[in-house]
Amino acid sequence: MHLQKMDKNKHDSFKVSELIYEADAETFDFFFGNKRNASEKLWRLVGVGDNHLGYQQIYLVTNDDQEIVGIMVYSSGEKIGKINELKVIFGNFNFLDSLRFIMIEIIDSLFLSKLNEDDFYYAIVAVDENSRGQGIGSFILEGGIKLARKMGCRRAVLDVDIENEGALRLYERFGFRKFKEKSISLLGWKKGAFNMEYLL
After folding, report:
1. Where is the N-acetyltransferase domain positioned along the sequence (predicted)?
2. pTM attached to this predicted model
3. Which residue of 43, 100, 104, 109 has the fewest C-beta atoms within 10 A of its own C-beta?
């Protein structure tokens, strides 16, 4: 396995967008209807860059055949400003799709970790469905920790859906610990996340 920074001219951006979709399929389906439609929108964000899902924020895991088997979308230090993010969204999508992305951001902000300037944030850790059970998730986490240390970060942070027991077990085995739980319940519907940290 190899962990490498995404090169939009070399790597399959659509495959990357499908893995981003898989990380939160329920939300993307709610706003965009289906995997194909959501992945096409995400593909545009990945390719145009200068946003929190842009190619500059992505590392890929490839196998010996150079197939993409996992991704890490991350942020650290200086964040992409909200104004720049909005410019990218409104400059690349129609008004309705732009509003959909803004709504996703608003919903995410209710659950995601509050970050410090010296945090390394795993925004997305995703492994291709056909490649699970091969240690790729741990490989991504290890690569992120090395990168975080190189950047001088003091803490690695991630969020996991409270219903995603498999991911929660992986993160706890790796050494992440929960520091907050955020959830909302409405008429029997519940959505929530554990905020987790790994001190460097």
Report:
1. 1-200
2. 0.92
3. 109
